Amino acid sequence: MGLHIPAILLLLLGSPVGSGFAAGQTAEVALLGGTILSIDQDALTLTIRMPSGESQILPVINRRLLQGLSIGEHVSFELDEAHRLIKITKLPVDPAN
């Protein structure tokens, strides 16, 4: 499992980004990581602190993605071209380290 963390960090640090999201002409998915600061079940949003220290409120495409998540957990996630969370994976360590 420890080999997945360096691979995720390589993706985070090695991929071209613009405004924190993957850039490109086609419909790309951005793979990012951070720490959950808040979960809004009613609005279907997560507030995530990115490794850079900035916080972002991100909409979630499906309520089931929020199940089992807790404030303070470290996660990797994928965004669609509309900057909506489409996949969330819990990480055993902080993605910034």
Short description:
Keywords: Signal. This protein has 97 residues and is mostly beta strands. The protein is 11% helix and 39% strand.
Tally of contiguous helical segments: 1
Rg over alpha carbons:
13 Å
Number of E strands: 7
CATH class: Mainly Beta
The percent range for strand residues is 35-45%
Overall outline:
globular
Helix content: 10-25%
In CATH terms, what is the architecture? Beta Barrel
Name the structural class: mainly beta
Q: How do the strands line up in the largest sheet?
A: 5-4-3-6-7
Distance between the termini: 16 Å
Determine the CATH topology. OB fold (Dihydrolipoamide Acetyltransferase, E2P)
Order of helices and strands: HEEEEEEE
Query: So, the CATH homologous superfamily?
Result: Nucleic acid-binding proteins
| Main pleated sheet | 5 strands, antiparallel
Mean pLDDT: 77
User: How many structural domains are formed by the residues?
Assistant: 1
Low-confidence stretches: 1-26
